[in-house]
Each structure stands twice: as structure tokens, then as C-alpha cells.
Write a structure and sequence with these properties.
Bound molecules: flavin-adenine dinucleotide
Number of helices of chain B: 12
CATH architecture of the largest domain in chain A: 2-Layer Sandwich
Strand order of the largest sheet of chain A: 3-5-1-12-9-10-11
Structural class of chain B: alpha+beta
Distance between the termini of chain A: 83 Å
Strand content of chain A: 15-25%
Largest sheet of chain A: 7 strands, mixed
CATH class of the largest domain in chain B: Alpha Beta
Number of domains of chain A: 3
Largest sheet of chain B: 5 strands, antiparallel
Number of helices of chain A: 20
Shape of chain B: globular
CATH superfamily of the largest domain in chain A: Aldehyde oxidase/xanthine dehydrogenase, molybdopterin binding domain
Number of domains of chain B: 3
Strand order of the largest sheet of chain B: 4-5-10-6-7
CATH architecture of the largest domain in chain B: 2-Layer Sandwich
Oligomer: heterodimer
CATH topology of the largest domain in chain B: Uridine Diphospho-n-acetylenolpyruvylglucosamine Reductase, domain 3
CATH class of the largest domain in chain A: Alpha Beta
CATH topology of the largest domain in chain A: Aldehyde Oxidoreductase, domain 4
Number of strands of chain B: 15
Shape of chain A: globular
Structural class of chain A: alpha+beta
Strand content of chain B: 25-35%
Helix content of chain B: 25-40%
Chain lengths: 791, 290
């Protein structure tokens, strides 16, 4: 036993992720590797048409194939209920298909090959309907209706009732969702403006490309309890949703999450394949496993929300912003998922990233026969930031102000309550701006590149800046945004941390373990995290909105502090000392001042356990952040803390080819406080690369409702040689609500890249491009057009 | 993927061509880097027999035979890039290999596979055409091993289609050792630096003496159903001094003689523009470094 132990902190250290050894050695068992005794394999038949009536489905040949246990269509599951954000989506389609991802039938068979073969034997007769693929056409008179009143297979309307979900009752127009927000008086703002710009920005389809494709295993036990092995990001919400869809008691549904090979928001909604797999398990009485192929993942998992965004903004000559008016058209695709709700985040950037007195914001999400969008890291913020930050540069140029000074002039300060009601208790935006600009040499480079534009030479350099604001302390979207923790200590001083928060590769279990160790004075090796079984873990709303470190972290700290209190009280009693003067360090109880060791923790725990009053150290804690629901007008303080960042991007544009190379990204991120330095660096670097893909190479090409590049050959992710040099600085604002001062950072790093790249291309070439992605051909065309115009 | 009835792995060229003749319906497997993805995607159906040709020693090796360098069909892209004979006489192939797929694919993918796959974007095809290569085809004739050779441009018929006969195997590629003063360039234009399929590619070769370019060969990839010769561009260059005017004229000739299509990778207009700009860039590079 050491005599004294001095205080040592894990905060800010570089800590290897707890799951890294298993993942790096290939031992992690993802859903792909998981097999359940007696399982069958499920496969789904999707539509071969973009928009059509289903006239006839014949499954008899498929059913007759040896090894096939069930072939189901909508007719076999009359109990199915609509899913999705607007309840407009039946898992198995009844009278019509509205996109090529639409599920028509499903097979459960002994092997994947047999299931595959059976799909080919299913005959479907369609009657094509006119295709609506351009969202601009959705509201025109005579546009094809995507959700007309459905006719059952027998053509009857009998089951239709007023007030039924869209999937049953139909929709008389193609409007899926609208959002309207207003602050101040934009007309007055415009009157005060010296400079006004209006432009339309086009944001494209990209998809998450998780390394782990979607999958699920569904199994009923003999008592009718349902066990799901699922990659969901929201297990507790899904329990409820599955119960609704299946007409089951939620208490009889258990969800276990195997290690998840990436989420990025894609696993935030229920998708048809999940209930369909349950239907198959029900029909066969056997466990059924269904895992997507990569092609299926491209075709049938959600996308980022494509947006056509018209922004009108103005400022005064002195650089004060005056107003912003935004109209967006969201292509909702055939069904409504989370993508339609991205205005919730977009309007925050419009109204509150900088100080703008007057704002008007309208969104229409319209049905088309295209793929539908879900939630995706950044949740609309990449789209909004792309427009807002380009206009910031344009206005700065118009009034002859340095783009950095222009931003600093309008940037938020700590303590600000914005007209939308967001309260920035901590706010490092100005420091982010100054740091990123200083470290990258932004001002000097900006001027030098500008001067270089018209000189000879095919390679042009550019530098661009953009900032972002995002929720960093949870997001009050659901009635509760909380998370529960149970913490238990065994009689050797090891901790089991049972948390509701899911790990999707972001490193949450490591950071939670770290926060607990910090309270209990234990090494990281002393903690096991249990976080993937709804039967065991306490409730959590799910992993989204960059909330886990903040919310689950605070919850874990709460549980750890309770355990700490218990232990120190017991130790004080035994040692005849004052609990306030004791501390936990290195597995021992010590005197706080001197560091003198009083006793060994494990020994104390055993004494507590085995004495006549036998007490186990076990605590639970629930953390609900102090944020408020927005009112009906979208005003309110939705997060307990807000994250800020500025990124400066340096590019090289080859004017002969249009190829844009990212040379360097300098980031300054207000993360509240760095907890796990290695983890946060990884998170930010990964986010930058994701933003880079969005800006430059990635595009899900959808033509007339058909995805033309459902594979990595022509869906171009960033490859290693394209990854830029990165210099990331952390601005530690020590948020008062955050766990050890930290704020959420999961989504932040992906948000600014496209906007900053657009500004950098303009700095390099004088050409401004308002449509993503900046593929070589698009950039070349823009340069070519500009050259022609000049000539 | 379809189920196979039969798998054979001959250990000599003679055995292989005999089996080809006997079995008739055969799919040939070399490195499998084209075949397997195509089969998985349902674009290629396996025939009744799968023949693994990787155990045939005669298909291996790179050697000089008289005025030619013979590269066995099974030589992998990595082997070609590392081989001293190639590095000395055919640096063009090394530079083509440099932009070919990834290390893993280069270690498995063979020259024979690249040629027989006959993709208009196949990255060895344009350089091979510039080098005046021919293919050595083996079959069984009158109970004997029979070989014929064919100039490369003649070999290609369309995407994935060649003049290879049903019972024939590509044994090797033969390349004349380039003459003194021969310079050549290959430019693969994709939209990213690694693991990309060419949107267009250009190869230029010829003898440069006292600034004059002669015996010029130009070929383009991914602008037609097969890799094609750039005859008009050759004409614009043949016997000329590589000065700015010649280069400009050649770039225009190149743009005007290709008729690419529009697809997910690029539009026809952009492809033509890139043919122009990259031809110019290559020629400028030749004229300034030699
Ligand atoms: C990820 C990836 C990246 C790629 N990148 C590139 C690239 O950058 N550039 C490029 O050009 N290609 C690329 N390819 C394609 C492929 O790797 C090459 O074409 C390779 O050279 C094919 O060789 P192989 O030995 O694998 O051919 P295989 O797949 O074995 O065969 C290809 C075809 O040729 C036939 N065949 C093979 N050998 C013979 C023979 N000796 N006689 C008769 N027929 C024969 C086969 O039956 C088959 O039809 C890529 C492929 C992948 C998977």
C-alpha cells in the first residue's frame, strides 16, 4: 500500500477507445457475425418501377421452392400499421409503389441463396403511373399525387376512416410537412439594408455509407416475447414503435444492440425491413435474420435531406446584418422520415449563428417518387450553413470588408439570448473565428490569393472560412431528453456502468468510463460498460443530436458521485475522519490535503458487503438537461449548451480540369472541454472527411427516381490520399452544465466544410458555385462559363 | 451467382487449350478482380466450367525475345511495375500501373485479364497501343498447340468483346522494344487520385529527335466502345516540331476526333474538353522535359 497518492486526472488525456482492441483485431461480432440457433434468412423484393399500381402479385412459385419457409406480401399482414415520422408508410406496400425502394414481398428461407432465388420467382404485374421526380413540380396543378386515397387490394374503401394516418387515408396534395418561423420584420430589415443578395442554393443527395450495413434478427420465444438484435440508435423509442406497429405490449419487446458499424443518424428511424423481418419471424415461428447487401444499403437506407434553398439577406455598410429570408423546398421523397424535420435545426443557424434582427423562414417538404431522407450528422445544418456562410462572404465583399471582420462584427457573445430564444451560456464563436484565422494565416492568404486570381497559371489557390452553431447539450425534441445510469461496484473495486446511451462507434463508452473513473479515482481498466440491452439498461432517448457525452456523461457522473458519497461516508465512519476531507485516488481512500492513504478501496467495499448490515455499492441516477421545448412558433431554448466552430479550408483548383484539392483544414472548435483527446481528435478528423465528401465527391445520383450509382465504384467516398492536412484547435469554454465542462461535438466537424470550400473556390477563382458537390466537371463548367462571359 | 458444374485447373498451356476445346463452355479465371465483381453483380454468368489458369507456367514471366518483350498473360500489374526489363524499356507501363486501382488489386489483377476484359477504360490498353503491342493467342489446332498473334487495335471489338475465339486463351502480350529516342506519356484522368475508373485516358508516344516528333502513336481510352487510335492527332504531330502551334493544333485535333458518351462519370462535352486539355498538357510536358 502506497503511503500517499497525489491527485491525478484523466480529463484531457489521450485514451484508447475501450472497443479498439477487439475492432482492430477483427474480433468484434457485428450483426453480420451473429447467428441465432435455427435462424432463417430474410430477403425483400423491392419495386422494379418508380411509380406504379400493383395489379397482381403471384408468390406461388416462390412458395413452392424447396427451402422456402414463408413468402409474405401485404395481404398476409393485414395487421401491419404505418411507420415513419408522418405515419405515411406501410412496410409492405398494398396498392401501389412510390419509389424503387418500395417493399412488395419478403421471403424467409434456409439460406440466403435460396431466399434470393425465391425473390426471382415472385411475379408482380404493375401499371405504371406518371413519375414525379422534380420537387419543383410537386405543387403544380396536375402533378401526380403520391399519396392518393388508397384502394385496398380489392378496391374497397371500407377500412378508410377520417383522421387515419396518411398511409390509410391518403393526402389530397403533395405537401408532406411545412415549417414557418418569424422574428422581427424582414421588410423593415430590408429597408435598412445597403446591400441585399438573393440566391438559390442546391443541396444534393448523399448517404451515410456506414461500414456496417443495416441488419436485424427477430426472434419470438414460446411465450410470444419478441427479441430483436438491432443496430438502432434509439432502442427505447423503437421498443415503443415496434409495439405500436405490431399491436404488442411494449414490455414484451427486448432490443439488444450488437456492436454497431456506424450510424451517423441513419439508424434513427424505423424502416420497413425491420417490421418485415418481424412479420417473417411471426409467419415462420423461427428466428429470421435480414442483412442488407451493399447495393441495398445504397438503395434502401435513408439519405441526407436534399434541399433547394433560396436565401435573401442584407446588411448595412458598416457590416451589421439586417435581415434574412429563407424559403426552402425539401424533396421529401415518397415517404416521410426525419429529413423533413431538418428545418428545426436549419432555422437555428439562419436565426442565431450570427446576430440577425429580422428573420423569416419557410420550408415545404413535398412528396416525390425519389428516395427519402432521414437524419444525417448535422441534421440540415450543412445545408443551411452552406447558404448562410456563402452569403456572409458575398456581403463582406460587397461592402469592402474583410470576411473575418464581418463575421466578428456579427458573432454571438456568451450570455446572449437570441430572438429565437436560444440562450448561449457559453459561447466561443469569436475565439473560434480568431483562432482558426490566426493559425491558418487566413487574412494574408485571402488577400494574396485574390491578387493571384488573374495571373497566369492553371493552378489557383484559395482559402475559405465558415463557422457553425449546433446543439451541444442535448436537444429537446422529444418530451424527455434524459438518460439513466446504474452503477455497481463489486467487492474488488471494479465498476459496472450500466447506461442507456448507445455506442455507435463514436467512443461514448470510453468517455463515460473515463468520467466515472475521474469521480471514483480508479484506472480505466476498472470499468466495464453495459449499454446495449433494453432489458438491463435504464432509459435513454437515443444517440443523436451530439448529446451522448453531455447527457449520458452527466448521468454517469451523477451515479458515480452518489457511489463516491456512499464510499467516503463509510470510510469516514471507519477511520473516524470527516468525509469532506477524504478523496478517492488510485483505488484508495486518501486524505484530500496530504494525499495520505487511509485505506484500500476494495477492502472497504468487502467490509461493507460482508458485515452484518451487508451493503452493496449500487447507485442510479437520471439526468434530464435544463432545456425547454420550443413553442408552436419554434421559439425556445432547446439545448442546455451550444457548440461552436470555425473551419478554414485551403484549396487548390486546377482550372484545366476543375479538380479541387483540399490542402489543409484548420479548425477551432468550442467543445466546452476536451475529455478524451484521442477520441475528440478522431471525431473531428472523421467529421472533416465526411464534410469533404459532401463538398467534393459524394453524390447519390437520382434520375427520374432511379439511383444510378448504388455502389462504391461510382459513389465516391474520399480515399486516403485526398484527406487534407488538419490542424484542429480546441477552445475550452468550460460549459457550466457540461460534464467536466464539455459540450457535444459529434456533428459539428462535418458542418462547415462545404461552405468553407465554396468560399475557398471563390477566393481562388472568383467563381461562386451554389450547387453541391463540387465535382471536377461542375467546377470546370463554372470556370468555363465565367471565362466565356469575360471574353 | 450461378452454380458451377465443373472446375478445372490445368497445369500446362497445352492441357488448357485441349480442355477448352473439349469442354466448350468455359469461363476463364485469372486474378478474378474483374470476373468476380461482375459475376456478383449479375453482369456475367458463369459458364458450365470454371477454368483457373493460374497454374499454367507458360503464362507467367516477363522476358526479352529478340526485338520484343513478352509479358505472360498472368503477369500481375505489380510484377510488371517492378520488373527491370519493363522499367528499362517500357516505363510507360510503369506509369500506367501507378494509377491503376490499389495495391491489393494490382497484386491480384493480371495484364491478360485487363486485356481480355476489354474495358474501354482498361488502364493498360492505351499504353499498350502506344507501344505497338500485339497479343499472342493460343489454341488447339490439329491436336497441336497453335499460336497466332494479332495487333492490339484489331483485337478489341467492343466493351468486354474481343476477337478471342471460344477455345482460345490469351498467352502473352508482345511489345516491340522501343527505338532510341522514344518518349511516351500516359495520362489517366479520373476525378480522384486513387481507386478511380478513368473518365478519359490518353497515351502519346513517338521518337523525338532535335525537337521533331516522328513515328507518333496516340491512343485514347474511355471515349469509345474500345480504346481507340488517335489518327488525326497523330497526323497533326507527325514530323512536326513540338512547338506551341503544333501542340495547340494536336489538342484540337484530339478533341475533334473523339466521340465520347455521357454517363455517371462525365458528360461527353467534359470528356472532349479533358481530351483537349490533357493532350495539351502531355505534349507540353514532353516538349519541356526532352
Ligand atoms: C477495386 C477495383 C479497382 C480497379 N481499378 C482498375 C483500374 O484502375 N484500372 C483498370 O484498368 N482496371 C481496374 N480494375 C479492373 C481489374 O482489376 C483489371 O482489369 C485487372 O487487370 C483484371 O485482371 P484479372 O486477372 O483480375 O482478370 P479476371 O477477372 O480474372 O478476368 C477478366 C476477364 O478476362 C478473362 N481472362 C482473364 N485472363 C485470360 C486469359 N489469359 N485468356 C483469356 N481470357 C482471360 C476472364 O475470363 C474475364 O472475362 C479494378 C478492379 C477492382 C475490383
Amino acid at each position: 500500500m502506497p503511503e500517499t497518492i497525489q491527485k491525478d486526472s484523466l480529463i484531457g488525456k489521450r485514451i484508447t477507445k475501450l472497443d479498439a482492441p477487439e475492432k482492430a483485431s477483427g474480433k468484434t461480432r457485428y450483426i453480420q457475425d451473429l447467428d441465432v440457433q435455427g435462424q432463417l434468412y430474410g430477403k425483400i423484393l423491392r419495386s422494379s418501377r418508380v411509380h406504379a399500381k400493383i395489379k397482381r402479385i403471384d408468390t406461388s412459385k416462390a412458395k413452392a421452392l424447396s427451402g422456402v419457409h414463408a413468402v409474405i406480401t401485404a395481404a398476409d399482414v393485414p395487421y401491419q400499421r404505418p411507420i415513419g415520422v408522418a405515419k405515411d408508410h406501410l412496410p409492405l406496400k398494398t396498392d401501389r409503389v412510390r419509389s424503387t425502394r418500395d417493399e412488395i414481398a419478403a421471403v424467409a428461407a434456409e439460406t440466403e441463396a435460396i431466399a434470393e432465388a425465391a425473390l426471382k420467382l415472385i411475379e408482380v404485374e404493375y401499371e405504371d403511373l406518371p413519375i414525379l421526380s422534380d420537387p419543383n413540380d410537386a405543387l403544380k396543378p396536375g402533378a401526380p399525387l403520391i399519396h392518393p386515397e388508397p384502394h385496398g387490394a380489392d378496391g374497397s374503401h371500407e377500412h378508410l376512416k377520417q383522421g387515419m394516418p396518411i398511409a390509410y387515408a391518403g393526402k389530397p396534395d403533395n405537401i408532406a410537412m411545412t415549417f414557418d418561423y418569424e422574428q422581427g420584420d424582414v421588410a423593415a430589415g430590408e429597408r435598412e439594408s445597403d446591400v441585399v443578395f438573393e440566391d438559390t442554393f442546391f443541396l444534393h443527395y448523399v448517404t451515410h455509407c456506414c461500414m456496417g450495413v443495416s441488419g436485424i434478427i427477430a426472434e419470438f420465444d414460446s411465450s410470444g416475447n419478441l427479441l430483436l438484435y438491432s443496430n438502432t440508435q434509439v432502442p427505447f423509442l423503437h421498443k415503443r414503435e415496434f409495439a405500436e406497429i405490431l399491436g404488442m405490449d411494449p414490455a414484451r419487446i427486448r432490443i439488444i444492440q450488437p456492436p454497431i458499424g456506424g450510424g451517423f443518424g441513419s439508424k434513427l428511424d424505423i424502416y420497413p425491413f425491420e417490421p418485415i423481418t418481424v412479420f417473417l419471424a411471426k409467419a415462420t415461428g423461427r428466428p429470421v435474420k435480414l442483412v442488407f447487401t451493399r447495393e441495398e444499403e445504397f438503395l434502401a437506407s435513408p439519405t441526407r435531406q436534399p434541399v433547394i434553398l433560396t436565401l435573401r439577406s442584407g446588411c448595412r455598410k458598416d457590416g451589421t446584418l439586417t435581415f434574412r429570408t429563407v424559403n426552402t423546398l425539401h424533396d421529401n421523397g415518397a415517404y416521410t422520415s426525419w429529413g423533413a424535420t431538418t428545418p428545426f435545426v436549419m432555422m437555428q443557424t439562419i436565426s442565431s449563428l450570427y446576430r440577425v434582427p429580422h428573420c423569416l423562414y419557410h420550408t415545404k417538404a413535398v412528396y416525390t417518387n425519389n428516395p427519402y431522407a432521414g437524419s444525417f450528422r448535422g441534421y440540415g445544418n450543412l445545408q443551411a450553413t452552406f447558404a448562410v456562410e456563402q452569403h456572409m462572404d458575398m456581403m463582406a465583399e460587397a461592402i469592402g470588408m474583410d470576411p473575418l471582420d464581418f463575421r466578428l462584427k456579427n458573432a454571438q457573445d456568451p450570455g446572449e439570448v437570441t430572438p429565437q430564444g436560444m440562450h448561449f451560456k457559453s459561447c466561443g464563436l469569436k475565439e473560434c473565428l480568431k483562432t482558426a484565422a490566426a493559425v491558418s494565416g487566413y487574412r494574408e492568404k485571402f488577400k494574396a490569393n485574390q491578387a493571384n486570381r488573374d495571373k497566369p497559371g492553371r493552378i489557383k489557390r484559395g482559402v475559405g472560412i465558415a463557422s457553425m452553431l449546433h446543439v451541444g447539450g442535448g436537444a429537446k425534441i422529444y418530451p424527455s431528453d434524459g438518460c439513466g445510469t446504474i452503477l455497481k461496484m463489486d467487492d474488488f473495486g471494479a465498476v459496472t456502468l450500466i447506461t442507456g446511451a448507445s455506442e455507435i462507434g463514436q467512443g461514448s463508452e470510453t468517455v463515460l468510463a473515463q468520467l466515472v473513473c475521474e469521480e471514483l479515482g480508479l484506472p480505466l481498466s476498472a470499468v466495464r460498460v453495459v449499454n446495449n440491452d433494453t432489458e438491463i439498461t435504464p432509459w435513454d432517448v437515443g444517440v443523436h443530436a451530439s448529446r451522448t457525452t453531455f447527457i449520458a456523461g452527466n448521468s454517469a457522473i451523477g451515479a458515480a458521485r452518489k457511489a463516491r458519497g456512499k464510499i467516503l461516508a463509510a470510510a469516514a465512519m471507519q477511520a473516524g475522519l470527516n468525509a469532506e476531507e477524504l478523496d478517492l485516488r488510485g483505488g484508495h481512500i486518501v486524505e484530500t490535503q496530504s494525499g495520505k492513504v487511509v485505506m484500500t478501496l476494495s477492502k472497504l467495499l468487502r467490509q461493507l458487503h460482508f458485515n452484518d448490515k451487508a451493503e452493496l455499492v449500487m447507485t442510479s441516477f437520471y439526468y434530464e438537461p435544463p432545456s425547454k421545448h420550443q413553442d408552436k412558433k419554434f421559439k425556445g431554448d432547446v439545448s442546455a449548451a451550444y457548440a461552436w466552430a470555425t473551419q478554414v479550408v485551403e484549396v487548390e483548383v486546377d482550372t484545366d480540369t476543375g479538380i479541387v484539392r483540399l490542402l489543409k483544414v484548420t479548425g477551432a472548435h468550442d467543445v466546452g472541454r476536451v475529455l478524451n483527446r484521442l477520441g475528440i481528435e478522431g471525431q473531428i478528423e472523421g467529421g472533416i472527411v465526411m464534410g469533404q465528401g459532401y463538398a467534393l465527391t459524394e453524390e447519390l445520383m437520382v434520375e427520374n427516381g432511379v439511383v444510378r450509382n448504388p455502389g462504391f465504384r461510382d459513389y465516391k467516398l474520399i480515399t486516403a490520399p485526398e484527406i487534407p492536412e488538419m490542424d484542429v484547435r480546441f477552445i475550452e469554454t468550460m460549459d457550466g452544465e457540461g460534464p467536466q465542462g464539455a459540450k457535444g461535438v459529434g456533428e459539428a466537424p462535418a458542418i462547415c466544410i462545404a461552405a468553407a470550400t465554396a468560399n475557398a473556390i471563390h477566393n481562388a477563382t472568383g467563381v461562386r458555385i451554389m450547387a453541391l458537390p463540387f465535382t471536377p466537371e461542375k467546377v470546370y463548367r463554372a470556370l468555363h462559363a465565367a471565362r466565356k462571359e469575360a471574353a | 451467382m450461378t452454380a458451377l458444374d465443373n472446375y478445372v485447373a490445368p497445369t500446362s498451356l497445352e492441357e488448357a487449350v485441349e480442355q477448352l476445346l473439349e469442354l466448350g463452355e468455359v469461363t476463364i479465371l485469372a486474378g478474378g478482380t474483374d470476373l468476380m465483381p461482375q459475376a456478383n453483380a449479375g453482369r456475367v454468368k458463369f459458364k458450365r466450367t470454371l477454368m483457373n489458369i493460374r497454374r499454367i507456367p507458360e503464362l507467367r514471366g516477363i522476358a526479352r525475345e529478340g526485338d520484343e518483350i513478352r509479358i505472360g498473360a498472368l503477369a500481375t500489374i505489380s510484377e510488371i511495375m517492378a520488373h527491370p526489363l519493363v522499367r528499362e524499356h517500357l516505363p510507360l507501363l510503369v506509369s500506367a500501373g501507378d494509377h491503376f486501382a490499389s495495391n491489393q488489386i494490382r497484386n491480384a489483377g493480371t495484364l491478360g485479364g485487363n486485356v481480355c476484359n476489354a474495358s474501354p477504360a482498361g488502364d493498360t490498353l492505351v499504353p499498350l497501343m502506344v507501344l505497338g503491342a500485339s497479343v499472342e493467342l493460343a489454341s488447339m489446332l490439329d491436336d497441336k498447340l497453335y499460336r497466332r498473334t494479332m495487333q492490339l487495335p484489331e483485337f478489341f471489338v467492343g466493351p468486354g468483346k474481343t476477337r478471342l475465339a471460344t477455345a482460345e486463351l490469351l498467352a502473352a502480350v508482345r511489345i516491340p522494344v522501343p527505338p532510341q529516342g522514344f518518349v511516351a506519356r500516359f495520362h489517366k484522368f479520373g476525378t480522384r487520385p486513387a481507386l478511380d475508373i478513368s473518365a478519359i485516358s490518353i497515351g502519346v508516344g513517338g521518337v523525338l529527335k532535335n525537337g521533331v516528333f516522328s513515328d507518333v502513336r496516340v491512343a485514347f481510352g474511355a471515349v469509345a466502345p474500345t480504346p481507340v487510335c488517335g489518327c488525326a492527332t497523330e497526323e497533326a504531330l507527325e514530323g512536326k516540331k513540338l512547338d506551341a502551334a503544333t501542340i495547340a493544333a494536336a489538342a484540337v485535333a484530339a478533341r475533334d476526333e473523339v466521340h465520347p458518351i455521357s454517363d455517371v462519370r462525365a458528360s461527353d462535352w467534359y470528356r472532349k474538353e479533358m481530351i483537349h486539355n490533357m493532350t495539351k498538357r502531355i505534349l507540353e510536358d514532353v516538349s519541356t522535359t526532352h
